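Lab notebook, bench 4. The sequencing result for the construct came back, and we need a structural model before the next group meeting so we can plan mutations. Quick request posted to the team channel:

Model the 3D structure of this chain.
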Amino acid sequence: MNSTTSRRAGKTFARALLIVASLWILIAGCSDKPTGGINGTGKTGDLVVSTGLIIGQVDLTEMVTIDGLSVNTEDAEIVVNGESGTVEDLRTGMAVSARVNFDLQRAEVIQYQPLVAGPIESTSDNKASIGIL
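Done. Here's the predicted structure in token form:
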């Protein structure tokens, strides 16, 4: 077999393989068996755990809102500076992390730790800046 014949045979084989693969994908897409969803079960949202972590600033204008998501805090564990706290201990603008059930928009845990800690060394005259050790 010379190189020209070998190349033709390779191209023919590649075309045939492409056609077979295309047909297989087309037939598989028409199947009644569930192939999508979670691990091919066909289920999309039923098995998904909808709890996650959000980090953002607290807004207390009407209810507790963290990074734009209003959450129910009725049964939430609140932790402020490493100690058990209440929603009343939170202030607008605090940076918090929260474990939230997104389906129920319910906070399970809201935790606040200050971003800066230490004794204040100095402040500017107009209180626009502070120096921390």
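The chain has a mean pLDDT of 74.
Will bring this to the meeting.
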